[in-house]
Amino acid sequence: MGEVLPGPVPAVERSRLAARRRRDRWVDLLLLLPGVGFLALFLVVPLAQVFLRSVGLALIGEAGHFTWDHYRQFWVEAQYRDGFFFSLWLGVASTVISLATALTFSALMQVRFPGRLVVSVLYKVPLVVPSLVAAFLILSLVAPGGILARLVAHWGWEWPRLVYDRWGWGIIFVLVWHNVPFMMVIISAVMAGIAQDINDAARNLGASPWEVFRFVTVPLSMPGVSAAALLVFIQVFGAFAVPSLMESAYPLALPVIMQTEMMDRANWALASALGSVLTIASAIVLFAYYRLVQGRESPAR
Questions:
Q1: ABC transmembrane type-1 domain location, by residue (predicted)?
Q2: What is the pLDDT of residue 109?
């Protein structure tokens, strides 16, 4: 017997299907509306307003005209340019040191040893300590008049300058102390998901523990490693609290300069331009990260 082919769909049925698709589309739009509206209201609109203010538009209480002078001022005047590169230095140095430390300790946390549970609890303590409180703790310890400086003074030793220095090592120390546990939470979770059989196979083939860590554990953990590094860099790059408390007189981090221009000098247009520069730089880093991730995934596909 021949197979019965379905006939053409009646016009009434086609119109019913089209009406159902339109209704489903409206339902989808209504379901997306709260999330899209929240992003538009609290993300897109403020960013657009900051950019418009940076180019001389959307000013508060005064007539505006389009200009690039505030961006030109950022690049021409050394204090703003040096502030940008100082913030960039803080972000890169803190991220590299935090990542190296977190990778090492995350690998060690995969090994079972006595007291491992206690260590796994203690290393998370900085996560619940606000960064400003951590800065006060570090200042009380390593500042020129801090506890350690007064302690070594009894032996006639001179305490090194670790805070209020040109390179911001005190700031970096606080940020590393605060961000290493955050990185470890992400990286440890990724490392814990690596099958133990893979590591055992590498060891059976003659790889040393260091070679297993370098050529097996780290490459397989790269999604977590790159995500943790990206989050920490963007957070440190725009940090305000710790640099405002612990940095030297020059250079100032760009977020600190923004606060001074906005609150002390009421120069909202220039502060908006500096904020736009920070946002654009972070967006470039984010774009480079996604391109790097896509480049690594495409050959695997």
A1: 84-289
A2: 86
